[in-house]
Amino acid sequence: MDAATAKTIIDIHCHTAGIGAGNSGCFISPAMRRSWRYKVFLKAFGVTERELLQEGDGLVMRRTSESLAASQRVSAAVILAVDGAVDDKGELDRARTEMFIPNEFVAAETARHPNLLFGASVNPLRRDALERLEQAAADGAVLLKWLPSIQHFDPVDRRLTPFYLKLKELGLPLLTHTGSEKSFTKAQNHLADPERLRLPLSLGVTVIAAHAASNGRNQGESNHRRFLRLCGEFPNLYADISALTQLNRLTHLQRLLKHPELFGRLLYGTDMPIPNTAAVTPFGFPNRLSPRRILEISRIANPWDQDVALKEALGVPEQIFSNAQSIIRL
C-alpha cells in the first residue's frame, strides 16, 4: 500500500465500553461484572474502573480516538453501540441484558472525535424500533450492529420485515454477528446462524456477516460453509475480517482467503479492543511467517498498525482494506 493511500483504511468493527459513569446510560450486568472478561476488557481498553468513575465512560472513546490518531494506516473506526434484550412489551429488559451501550451515548461521543464513526444498535423487537432506527440515521449512523445471540431475537422472524425495509430505505448496512459468541457469559448461538439472514438478504438489505461466520456449527454443518453458500446466492452479502487472527481462529483467515471471488465483499475490521489482548499476536503464526517478520510486526507499537501489518503479511490483499468506503453509509 503506497503512502498516498496509507491513511484511508476504515475499521468497521470497533467496540467501546461503559459502566454508567458520567450519566452515559451504559449498563453491564452483575454476571458480566463478576466474569473474568470484565477485567480483561477494561485493561484492553486502557482504562480502570476508578478512572471511569472519575471521568465518565466517554474516556474509553477518547483514548480510542487518541490511539487511532497515532496510527499511520487507519484513518477512522466505527464505534458500535450495543442494544439490550427486550421484554414482551418491547422495552429494555435489564434482567436479560449483559451489556447495554445506548445509541445516544455513542452518537454524542463519536461526534466529539473526527476519527470515530457512529455504529448504531437497535433491537428490532423494541416497541419503537422504527423510530429508533430513523433517529440513529439522523444522528449520523453509518451502519447498524446486531448481536442476535445475546439480544435474544431471531433474524428470520417475519415480524421484522418492516424493520428490514426501513433499513433498506435509509441505506444502512446491517453488521450482524455470525458464528459462535464467546465474549459474554451466555449466548443463544443458533440465532447467529448465517442461514437465518435469508430474510433481510431476500429483501435487499446490505448485510455484513461479522467475522464471516468463521466458527461454530448449525444443523451438523459449519457456519463457514453455510456463509459461503449464501454468498453464492446473494450479492448483497458481505463480511468483515475482524477477529480472524485470534489464537482460537488461527486457520480461519487463510480458509477465507481461498475465495478470491469474495475479495470485493470483505471489509476490514479489528474487533478492537481484542488486538490489545493476548488473543491476537503475530507469534501465533510461526508456520505462516518467518521469525524475522514476526519480530518486525510485534515491534509495531500502534495496535491498528500492527493489526494491518499482520493481516497483510498473512495475505490480505489491498482491495479488502479499502472496500468499506463504498459500503458503509458515510
TrEMBL record:
Pfam families: Amidohydro_2
Domain Amidohydrolase-related: 10-279
InterPro entries assigned to the protein according to its UniProt record, in alphabetical order: ACMSD (IPR032465), Amidohydro-rel (IPR006680)
The protein's name: Amidohydrolase family protein
Species: Geomonas diazotrophica
Highest classification ranks of the organism: Bacteria, Pseudomonadati, Thermodesulfobacteriota, Desulfuromonadia, Geobacterales
